[in-house]
Design goal:
The chain has ten helices and 13 strands. By secondary structure, the chain is of the alpha/beta class. It starts with a helix and ends with a helix.
């Protein structure tokens, strides 16, 4: 691909200095290299731009037009780079596309949005809450919040939180079906499970010093942690999720932990993932730093 802007810079310098030799000294190029570059421009345009004399260079009328337009184009390029550089490194501004799961978004991000936008009023937050795993780069997302193991090594990540898993039920469910006292009793309970592929098919518990996985079953498979929480609140069954999703409900007494004596202590980790770059845009860096601080 031709470097038209680079050619214009060389031409402008040679025309202003009226000398291939002087331009070459500034650019650390030979006079013949400068001459060949100008000739290449002329050949491409089919017009003579510079008349070479033994003492100096003179622009033709076509050369004067090219010089004026080249100066304007180079000035526009410089101004564009200045604006982008300021927006990327100095002032957090512009559209910020963020993706998070419904549960995490409702619990952890939405309560922080007013403070974030008050702190960065020139950022336009484009927030999508979905429990599907998206293609961060393909969907041009600036930041995605992901829970569980990270598989895409091309993305950078910063940890936001880690939370122990917990099995919960509503007091109404426990009143109707009883509180299981051992994982062996889960076969008699309605266990609500996730339907996405990365979900555990069996629930782990620590029994007699070793972690064992118990197959569980129920009458619903669901795709969202937020839906799981609501179904548990409605008394439809037992659910297993990261404790941060249900901590306020446990504190309020609307959900109660189940089989905590057998909790294996495995944790759910949430990361902010993004396409890493040495020059990360200020709006992206500001959002991630804000989440790390607040969450």
């Amino acid at each position: 691909m031709d470097n038209r802007a680079g050619e214009m810079e060389v031409f402008v310098l040679a025309a202003e200095l009226k000398s291939f030799s002087a331009a070459g000294r500034k650019l650390r190029l030979s006079p013949s290299a400068i001459s060949k570059l100008v000739t290449r421009i002329e050949d491409r345009l089919g017009a003579r731009l510079i008349v070479r004399t033994t003492r100096r260079l003179e622009l033709t009328p076509e050369g004067e037009v090219y010089l004026g337009r080249a100066r304007a184009i180079l000035a526009e390029i410089a101004e564009t780079e200045r604006i982008v550089a300021e927006g990327a490194r100095v002032v957090p501004r512009g559209a910020l596309r963020v993706n998070a799961s419904v549960g995490f978004g409702e619990r952890c991000i939405l309560p922080l949005v007013p403070d974030f936008l008050a702190l960065y009023p020139e950022i336009e937050l484009d927030l999508t809450l979905t429990d599907g795993v998206i293609d961060v780069i393909g969907e041009r997302t600036d930041v995605a919040i992901r829970s569980g193991p990270l598989r895409d090594s091309s993305l950078k990540a910063r940890k936001l939180l880690e939370s122990r898993h917990v099995v919960v039920a509503s007091p109404a469910y426990v009143a109707r079906h009883g509180m299981p006292s051992h994982p062996d009793q889960l076969g008699g309970h309605n266990c609500l499970r996730f339907n996405f592929r990365r979900a555990l098919e069996a629930w782990p518990f620590k029994v007699e010093g070793a972690v064992r996985h118990y197959d569980v079953s129920g009458n619903m498979l669901i795709s969202s942690g937020a839906i799981l929480r609501q179904l548990c609140l409605d008394g439809l069954g037992l659910g297993r999720t990261g404790r941060f999703h249900v901590e306020p409900d446990i504190v309020a007494g609307t959900l109660v932990p189940v089989l905590e004596d057998y909790n294996p202590g495995d944790i759910e980790i949430a990361h902010a993932v993004f396409a890493g770059h040495e020059h990360l845009a200020a709006r992206i860096r500001a959002f991630i730093d804000f989440l790390v601080e607040k969450i």
